[in-house]
Write a structure and sequence with these properties.
The protein is α+β, with helices and mostly antiparallel strands and 535 residues long. It is built from 14 helices and 29 strands. A hairpin with a 6-residue loop joins strand 18 and strand 19. The structure holds one RNA strand of 74 nucleotides.
RNA sequence: GCGGGUGUAGCUCAAUGGCAGAGCUCCAGCCUUCCAAGCUGGUGGUGAGGGUUCGAUUCCCUUCACCCGCUCCA
């Protein structure tokens, strides 16, 4: 299966277009066409229905530790700038960073200091994170590099005082803070991953704001509002679907990495003691959802992060990944991350940005010893009125990409098979085998030929079905051609009015995947389609 | 961010320093009783900007986008 065919079909049939195409396009931005907008809306609606509005909050669902509540939310894209400082996005997304190719560690360009040092006829610049211990660390690094014992430390000659790495132009002679070889640091790169804008007519820095890089923070800051307005007890999930923006360095692979994208996120709040069980529940539940929507088992995997990849407070993170056609053999791309986030987010919005490297989590301090970013000071903890226990809830976060899911469904659906034409000759048929729930058009209605009263009957059926589903009417050309067109659009059912229909009030219902036709009474068409979609 | 490639009609592909062509698609009409049939007619194109030239889709420069490899990826 090659990606070009899928991209071509998406363009040809109106699933996806390049943004601003008549002006040459814009990297990292994509538009959904008439079929695409229906498909993506169906993806989001299926998720919302299955996770939120259709949620059974009375029973204990299979695999769940208990029953739980689910609520929805729709927050603004631009939020108070302090939100991103306490969430950590500001620090993470807004600095010049250097990466070490050897150790894969990343440092802020302006937070590495270093000194020139010479020994054994070689002069290098050793670096260390700025701080009280930087001198000791640099000495240790230098001696290790030059293979000099501690007792001979006078063999190395320091040249000049400690200076910031920002003063150094070429990194060829620079030794990274944890590296063994020279020149492993990349050029400093600006991580300006948040789109910046200005609130108010004046564009001064005091009005600076950001387009959200994730929908999650809107949920955290509204946690108390939702809790107070719904009378819910924990455990409770809050769901949100909405646009997010990241100024990705390298957008690529069709819509997979876009700069404007839509997320479907749940923040699930629970008691710390139960968080591990809830993590497993959500991980398994979300994987199953993709299966239920038609993604086959061998192209979908769940990858648990290794311990080293996890923030220390997290019990686990699992990525649900799909084998996209543009990925190398055996490689997968992330559809959704299910993360155990502990109480990091709520506490950061209460107390101020926490330091992820501490255990237990403590307030991150600035150079002046004061909290780096102040929190809201509002109490976001929860009092269980049954046990009278007060605690800060732990959070499980299933965070899905609506565009990535849509793309995966498109890729999974794309099929080429062979079907005989009216002369019995085999022809390649392109068919989008989308799950009926996701299909943009649920059914197409055709008169077999454009005469003998068939169009009139077909139009009546069309208008009747239109009240319930997105249906499509077509009377032009040969019926076989009309079937093929619907195959490419992913329409699961075609209803054809023929001569018999006029006398016995039945039509044929043609199945997209099996090509089978069954006769159905006109009065029962709506119900038959409804049953098949819900299967 | 680096290197390589590509850009001609909705799609697949031709051609040329001098009127840009075909097949399929699409549209209209005729015909047509179940899987891209047939006949007639029709619409439609050189990614953008600049330069060289009498004349550029073709040569040169810039730019944009896409693809491949590396890099990166909350």
């Amino acid at each position: 299966m090659d990606m070009d065919s899928i991209v071509s079909l998406c363009k040809r049939r109106g699933f996806l277009f390049q943004s601003s195409e008549i002006y040459g396009g814009l990297q990292g931005f994509w538009d959904y066409g008439p079929l695409g907008v229906e498909l993506k809306r169906n993806v989001k609606n299926a998720w919302w229905q299955d996770m939120v509005s259709g949620h059974d909050d009375i029973s204990t669902l299979p695999g769940a530790p208990s029953s739980y509540a689910m609520e929805g939310l729709d927050c603004t894209i631009i939020m108070h700038p302090q939100v991103w400082k306490c969430s950590g996005h500001y620090d993470l997304f807004h600095d010049f960073m250097v990466d070490c190719r050897e150790t894969k560690k990343r440092y802020r360009h302006d937070q590495l200091n270093g000194r020139w040092v010479e020994a054994k006829g070689q002069k290098i610049f050793v670096t260390a994170p700025a701080g009280d211990e930087e001198q000791a660390v640099m000495e240790k690094q230098a001696m290790k590099f030059f293979k000099i014992r501690a007792k001979n430390k006078d063999d190395i000659q320091w040249d000049g005082a400690s200076t910031c790495l920002t003063e150094i132009d070429s990194f060829a002679e620079v030794l990274g803070p944890d590296a063994k070889t020279l020149g492993t640091l990349t050029e400093p790169r600006e991580f300006n991953l948040m789109f910046k804008t200005y609130v108010g007519a004046l564009s001064g820095e005091e009005g600076a704001a950001f387009l959200r890089p994730e929908t999650a923070q809107g949920i955290f800051v509204n946690f108390k509002n939702v809790l107070d307005s719904t009378r819910n007890r924990l455990p409770m999930g809050i769901a949100q679907i909405g646009k997010s923006f990241r100024n990705e360095i390298t957008p690529r692979n069709f819509t997979f990495r876009s700069r404007e994208f839509e997320q479907m996120e749940i923040e699930f709040f629970c008691h710390p003691d139960k968080s591990q069980e809830w993590y497993r529940y959500w991980r398994d539940r979300r994987l199953q959802w993709y299966h239920d929507m038609g993604i086959s088992g061998d192209r979908l995997i769940m990858r648990e992060h290794h311990k080293e990849e996890l923030a220390h407070y997290s019990i686990g993170t699992a990525d649900i990944e799909y084998a996209f056609p543009f990925m190398a053999e055996g490689e997968f791309g992330e559809l959704e991350g299910v993360a155990h986030r502990g109480d990091f987010d709520l506490r950061s919005h209460m107390e101020g940005k926490l330091d992820e490297k501490t255990d237990p989590l403590t307030l991150q301090l600035g150079e002046d010893g004061k909290p780096k970013w102040k929190g809201s000071g509002k109490d976001l903890s929860y009092r269980d009125d049954l046990t009278n226990e007060k605690y800060t809830p732990h959070v499980i976060e299933p965070s899905a990409g609506a565009d990535r899911a849509t793309l995966a469904f498109l890729c999974e659906a794309y099929t080429e098979d062979s079907a005989p034409d009216d002369k019995g000759k085999m022809q390649t048929r392109t068919v989008m085998k989308l799950h009926p729930r996701l299909a943009p058009i649920k059914a197409a209605v055709f008169p077999l030929v454009k005469k003998d009263g068939m169009p009139e009957v077909a139009k009546d059926i069309y208008l009747d079905l239109k009240k319930h589903f997105n249906v499509f009417y077509d009377e032009k050309g040969a019926v076989g051609r009309r079937y093929r067109r619907q195959d490419e659009a992913g329409t699961p059912y075609c209803i054809t009015v023929d001569g018999e229909s006029l006398t016995d009030k039945t039509v044929t219902l043609r199945d997209r995947d099996s090509l089978e036709q069954v006769r159905v009474k006109i009065d029962e068409v709506e119900q038959v389609i409804r049953e098949r979609i819900d299967e």
